[in-house]
Amino acid sequence: MDTILFNFHDLLMVLTAFECLLLALLLAASAKKPSLSNALLVAFLLCHCLIPLHELMFWGKQFRIWLLEISPDLFFIFSFAYYLDGPLLYFFVRALLYKDVQLRRKHSWHLLPLAIYLLHMVWNFYALDQQSQAQLIHSQHIAYSSPHLYVETLGRFVRAGYVLWCFLLVWRYREQIRHEQADLKTIDMYWLKLMLLSFLIIFTLDTVLVCLKLYGFLANDFNMDLLNVVGLSSYYLNFVALNILIFLRFTSFVGVKPVREQPLFEAKEETTVLYDDAIAVQLDKLMTQQRFYANPDITLDKLADAAGYPAKKVSLTIKQRYQQNFYEYINSYRIAEAKRLLAEQGPAAKTITDIYFAVGFNSKSVFNTFFKRLEGVTPSQFRELNQAPTGK
After folding, report:
1. CB 3.0 to 4.6 Å from 356: which of 64, 98, 290, 361, for a disulfide?
2. Contact by Cβ (8 Å): 149, 210
3. Which three-class secondary structure state does DSSP give residue 103?
4. Strand partners, 99
5. Do 204 and 274 fall within a single domain?
């Protein structure tokens, strides 16, 4: 970074900042109705507009000289974004997956790392006279000294931890939706995992960078070549990750079906409650007589309405009586009916495409995958195995 004005690395950071700002403004202006997830994504993008600007101001030699001529107080004014993007990403994912998520006063503890950082900067930088500030900036000593490195290391670990927390949210959502939906495409959100994996790599690389600085400080031996390689790599990977986010925002986010968030320890209460036999009888009637499983858009709420019982009791009955979640329960009936149709012979026999549509699947690949998981063979193989031998 410390070479000439507007080298390629500088231009990349300017482009990253501009791209984030442009997308944030576009999302804010094009929102059809207020959405917490959209607002959080806008705020996250604004943070990632400020982060490359902070890097450019501090590490770009010519920019550093310009700002020092104006005021040393201008440095670090955007660095707070490093302590906000983690919580913003977490609440964005949470608002995307769950209904009725709101930011409340009890969530203010997420700002604790930011508060620690701001107190550190006020006490150890902004409280100094401008000559001392300028010396710290000009020599870049503040970036390689205590207590700045300790606070920065804490912030980077917390930041990476938020991405891991996001993965936990996705896992909990995936488990919960198996009790409420029968659509495999809704459950397997590879796009969201890809986005989170991209940012986990970026945040982890930033954490490695600050750990290398801390090691250099403690050992009094900074490997500047290694620090430059890791630092520049994070710039390029950050640009790639943000473009992945932009692509996914316009291709996949709209397909998410948010559900009501369940308390983390709610499931433990269910072990003390027994299911109602009357509900099990009613469910059997709906499945065998009315073929409710054949509805490709069947959900737990729809099944509960048809049965005339609360969704929570229906879910409990499926879980305890059949030892299955809703997803497995519905698809087991679909596969059983598919097996019957596959075994039929003669002119009335249906094609495999007709069969998977008839039993409620929307996708042949999903049908094949679930069928093989239960039966150990594909539908085509099952049909061949069940064909009656023909005489000569």
Report:
1. 361
2. yes
3. coil
4. 260
5. no
Please state the rounded mean pLDDT for residues 168-181.
Answer: 86
Q: What is the pLDDT of residues 197-223, one digit of tens each?
A: 999 999 999 999 999 999 998 888 888
Pure H helices in the chain: 8-30, 36-59, 61-70, 85-97, 112-121, 130-139, 148-177, 184-187, 190-219, 224-249, 277-288, 300-307, 311-321, 326-343, 352-358, 364-375, 379-385
Mean pLDDT of 9-33: 88
Query: Rounded mean pLDDT of the chain?
Result: 86
Q: In terms of domains, do 112 and 226 share one?
A: yes
φ/ψ (deg, to 5) at 127:
-80, -15
Rounded Cα–Cα distance for residues 176 and 192 (Å) = 16
Domain count for the chain, please give it.
Answer: 3
Is 40:107 a contact under the CB 8 Å cutoff? Answer: no
Q: What is the CATH number of the domain that holds 343?
A: 1.10.10.60
- The rounded Cα 47 to chain-centroid distance in angstroms is 17
Return the amino acid letter for 355. I
Instruction: Decide if 2 is inside a domain.
Output: no
Q: What is the pLDDT of residue 285?
A: 92
